[in-house]
């Protein structure tokens, strides 16, 4: 029989590491299981300027390194494994990984969500170097520059309007000739003098040596290609992609309550519909997905997991 942990956390992003810190500080035996690299999306971010206190050496990797070190110092165990099955029906929760089976009195799922990508040449290489998936995170890096926003839904248009506070010009790039956003949101965008539109267009390639320097568009109706180059004054511009997110929750489908988009539905205590199972961070239904909200979710989930274990007498 394997060890029964007080708390097992799936995912080592900001939410998972925060939960690990609070769990271990609460004297619970705590294990974090991560299938990939520690840190999640934030480790691809060159600079983190909106997390409280992160004003010196504020890169994504350095912030995550400090979070991981702090969790480790309080006794959090961390291993690399991929959870492929589970059984949450009993008092003791069972998680089946590719390497081993794990048991816990409480589980926090902090598997995160991934932005939908353009899947074009140059996108991966220039992510964090002009290509972004978060206006709140990166807008101020493009003060007085030109930016492009890819997408036509509510989020894309709302983020485009937010970007006008920083950028000199914002162009919404949409593959159709009309937006999908709510009419009230569209009206505000059309009335904003800083917002322009590039209809019937998709990005075929992003070019640059270390930073975004040009972008190749394709007209979806004619197939015509055109290339836009950065202004000489700045030498770069921003490309913000808002075509949706994909929550990493597939294996829990039909067993843990989710909304139509696949995000866990929780209450303010991060509790799912299954007693002893909590969700934290970008994988749960929420209005703001940022490092600061993920760490808050993780802290709440760990505290409530401790209370659950005490209440159940486990």
TrEMBL record:
Catalytic reaction equation(s): [thioredoxin]-dithiol + NADP(+) = [thioredoxin]-disulfide + NADPH + H(+)
Q: Where is the FAD/NAD(P)-binding domain?
A: 5-298
Q: Which of the seven top EC classes does this enzyme belong to?
A: oxidoreductase
User: From what superkingdom does this record's organism come?
Assistant: Bacteria
The keyword Transcription regulation is assigned to this record: no
Q: Which UniProt keywords apply?
A: Disulfide bond, FAD, Flavoprotein, NADP, Oxidoreductase, Redox-active center
Q: Name one GO biological process term.
A: removal of superoxide radicals
**What's the record's note on cofactor binding?**
Binds 1 FAD per subunit.
The protein's Enzyme Commission number: 1.8.1.9
Q: How does it assemble?
A: Homodimer.
Give the protein family.
Answer: Belongs to the class-II pyridine nucleotide-disulfide oxidoreductase family.
**Know the name of this protein?**
Thioredoxin reductase
């Amino acid at each position: 029989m394997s060890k029964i942990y007080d708390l097992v956390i799936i995912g080592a992003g900001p939410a998972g590491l925060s939960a690990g810190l609070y769990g271990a500080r609460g004297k619970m035996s705590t294990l974090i299981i991560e299938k990939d690299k520690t840190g999640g999306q934030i480790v691809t971010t060159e600079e983190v300027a909106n997390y409280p206190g992160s004003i010196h050496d504020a890169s994504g990797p350095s912030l995550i390194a400090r979070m991981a070190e702090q969790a480790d110092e309080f006794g959090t165990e961390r291993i690399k494994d991929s959870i492929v099955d589970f059984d949450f029906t009993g008092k003791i929760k069972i998680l089946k990984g590719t390497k081993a089976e794990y048991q816990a009195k409480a589980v926090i799922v902090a598997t995160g969500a991934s932005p939908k990508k353009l899947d074009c040449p140059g996108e991966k290489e220039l992510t964090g170097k002009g290509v972004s998936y978060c206006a709140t995170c990166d807008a101020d890096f493009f003060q007085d520059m030109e930016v492009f926003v890819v997408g036509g839904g509510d989020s894309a248009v709302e983020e485009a309007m937010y970007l006008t506070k920083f950028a000199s010009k914002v162009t919404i790039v949409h593959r159709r000739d009309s937006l999908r956003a709510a009419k009230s949101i569209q009206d505000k965008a059309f009335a904003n003098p800083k917002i322009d539109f590039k209809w019937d267009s998709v990005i075929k390639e992003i070019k640059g040596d270390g930073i975004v320097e040009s972008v190749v568009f394709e007209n979806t109706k004619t197939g015509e290609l055109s290339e836009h180059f950065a202004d000489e004054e700045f030498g770069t511009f921003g490309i913000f992609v808002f075509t949706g997110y994909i929550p990493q929750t597939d294996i829990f489908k039909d067993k843990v309550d989710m909304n139509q988009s696949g995000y866990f539905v929780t209450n303010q205590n991060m509790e799912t519909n299954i007693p002893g199972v909590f969700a934290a961070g970008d994988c749960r239904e929420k209005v703001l997905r940022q490092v600061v909200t993920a760490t808050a979710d993780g802290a709440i989930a760990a505290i409530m997991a401790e209370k659950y274990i005490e209440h159940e007498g486990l």
